[in-house]
Design a protein that fits this description.
transmembrane helix, membrane, single chain, mainly alpha, 476 residues, transmembrane, APC_superfamily, 18 helices, disordered N terminus
């Protein structure tokens, strides 16, 4: 009822009226565990179709298998740590958001850069393989004359960026389907080579060698052994878009690493039983080559489709993850706030998606595959190192029982210690073969850190960055 004796002043009326300021457009929570699985496995499964075999060239087939299992331990630790921290820090940016809440701004800035570089270089690697694969398949089938594979690289990047621009649900639903088909191709090839009858199709007794470079070969193989699993940590980038983070993220991530451990071992068995290690160690599309060697035309076509789908699923997931990390950094003003924009209709970080299209194209048409893989691995390694440190700090600041956790990883701090140890081994392995790239990337990240401290940090609003309703940390 209006008080006529005391009419409201304009200021009071304005205060009483509903706010006219529009609420900030947020990302949609539409994903479930299957989408998380499709994102994590979809990014990584391409590692079974290409790249892992460079580990064979580094140390032989036995060294590659050892590196595969050691890297499997490393990524199991990553998956367990990620599942606990991300189900608690359910925000876009994944490990970047974790470092921001647990360690501080400089660590968060670096982790954000590691994520963006790792996923962008992985996307570039996938585009390169897509171009090489289509060119090889067309030549083998006698379909057309000379093709310019660079056109397919560009088309892959542009099409998948458009798909990501249009919406995350459709993007990751596509990923789920084509990842399942790619995984089915591996299982079909494994069944076709009849592992229950060794010697009929596979020739491990003739092709397997010992350690041609000795124990050092195992160490060197760790470099590309990571390629079997690199990117499974990308499931955390969907944290702000899943319906139930406490359930979906651990379930999708842990089932994802189990899937990849099986796929990696099957892939090694198939490749080393059909090809000499000298050839396998430098092949661009080893599983497609294995399909050709079986002599079955339908299987060759299926492996072409499986390899193509694996590269598309991986590149698709990489665009999703790199854009989320960049978007989160822009929203927190670690990067220009312009990148923190959300599309009003599609509810996607559209500016961050579009920004990386020309960068990815430039690297795809100008950089060799082994170097883009190395850039991605090194950036991932740096992120895992900080992840191991962060989870130790996390447990100390907020012990069990002090905050709600969607998942608690067992045997703490053993996974963190194992992760740090295996990261140190892999740094040395990368240094043996790609020391120049290692030093160049470390220099880049040091210069970027200096830029952040001197210039960018003054734009950050730290009070707006901490979105978790946690109590003060122990010892605060």
């Amino acid at each position: 009822m209006v008080d006529l004796a005391h009419p409201a002043t304009p200021a009071a009326a304005a205060a009483a009226a509903p706010s006219a300021t529009p609420s900030r457009v947020a990302l949609k929570r539409v994903l479930g565990p299957a989408h998380v699985w499709g994102l994590g496995v979809g990014i990584v499964l391409v590692g079974e179709f290409m790249g892992w075999n460079f580990a064979v060239g580094k140390g032989g087939a036995i060294a590659a298998l050892t590196a595969c299992w050691l890297a499997g331990i490393l990524y199991t630790c990553v998956a367990m740590i990620d599942s606990e921290v991300t189900s608690t820090v359910a925000a876009a940016g994944g490990q970047y958001a974790q470092a921001k809440h647990i360690i501080g701004p400089l660590a968060a800035f670096n982790v954000g850069l590691y994520l963006v570089m790792a996923y962008t270089m992985l996307e570039v690697s996938n585009a390169i393989v897509t171009g090489d694969l289509i060119e090889a398949f067309a030549h083998n089938m006698g379909l057309v004359g000379d093709l310019d594979k660079r056109a397919f690289m560009v088309l892959t990047i542009v099409f998948l960026a458009w798909l990501n621009y249009r919406g995350v649900l459709a993007t990751l639903t596509v990923n789920y389907v084509i990842t399942a088909i790619a995984f089915a191709a591996i299982l079909t090839l494994f069944a076709y080579v009849r592992p229950w009858a060794p010697g009929e199709v596979t020739k491990h007794s003739d092709l397997l060698t010992g350690l041609p470079y000795g124990g050092l070969g195992i160490l060197a193989a760790m470099h590309f052994g990571l390629w079997f699993y690199l990117g499974i940590e990308g499931t955390t980038q969907a944290a702000e878009e899943v319906r139930s983070p406490a359930r979906s993220l651990p379930l999708g991530t842990l089932t994802g690493i189990m899937t990849l451990l099986i796929a990696a071992t099957l892939t090694w068995y198939i490749g080393t039983g059909l090809m000499p290690w000298e050839y396998l160690g430098q092949a661009i599309t080893p599983l497609y080559d294995a399909g050709r060697l079986t002599g079955s035309a339908p299987l060759e076509v299926f492996l072409f489709v499986g390899t193509l789908f694996a590269t598309l699923a991986s590149a698709n997931g990489c665009i999703n993850d790199a854009s989320r990390a960049w978007f989160a950094m822009g929203r927190d003003r670690y990067m220009p706030v312009w990148f923190g924009g959300v599309h009003p209709k599609y509810r996607t970080p559209f500016r961050s998606i579009v920004f990386f299209v020309p960068i990815a194209i430039l690297f795809a048409v100008s950089t060799p595959l082994d170097q883009t893989i190395t850039f991605s691995i090194l950036s991932g390694l740096l992120g895992y190192t900080i992840m191991a440190i962060a989870v130790i700090i996390f447990r100390r600041k907020w012990p069990l029982g002090s905050i709600n956790r969607g998942y608690v990883h067992p045997l703490h701090p053993l996974p963190a210690i194992l992760l740090l140890t295996l990261c140190a081994v892999t740094y040395f392995a990368v240094f043996l073969g790609y020391g120049t790239q290692l030093l160049a990337m470390m220099s880049f990240y040091i210069l970027a850190s200096a830029w952040f401290v001197v210039h960018r940090y003054k734009y950050c609003r730290r009070g707006e960055q901490f979105t978790m309703a946690w109590p003060k940390p122990r010892g605060y």
